[in-house]
Amino acid sequence: MEQKFKEILALNLKVERTRKRLTQKQLADRLGMSLNFIGKIEVGYDHPSLYTLIDIANNLEIPLKNLFD
């Protein structure tokens, strides 16, 4: 179940980020996070906390649920 969650999040984060025409570096800078961490999320290697997910969604100006649909 956890792996499926990571895969869905990874795909949706990349889709939403590229839809906003942001690089991983730009998103990381906006969030005050490392490029490495954003990259790990996008390949399903790591998963962020709920608070980080909320920050990501707010920064991308999307509902949080879009990261999981």
Structure description:
The protein has 69 residues and is mainly alpha-helical. The protein has one domain: 434 Repressor (Amino-terminal Domain). 65% of the residues lie in helices and 0% in strands. Helix 2 packs across helix 3. The chain is globular, with a radius of gyration of 11 Å. It starts with a helix and ends in a 9-residue tail after the last helix.
Order of helices and strands: HHHH
Overall tally of domains? 1
CATH C-level class: Mainly Alpha
CATH topology: 434 Repressor (Amino-terminal Domain)
Could you name the CATH homologous superfamily? lambda repressor-like DNA-binding domains
Number of strands: 0
Secondary-structure map:
Layout: H1 2-19, H2 24-31, H3 35-42, H4 50-60
List keywords for this structure.
69 residues, mainly alpha, 434 Repressor (Amino-terminal Domain), 4 helices, 0% strand, globular
Brief write-up:
This protein is 65% helix and 0% strand. It is mostly helical. It has one domain (2-67): 434 Repressor (Amino-terminal Domain) (Orthogonal Bundle).
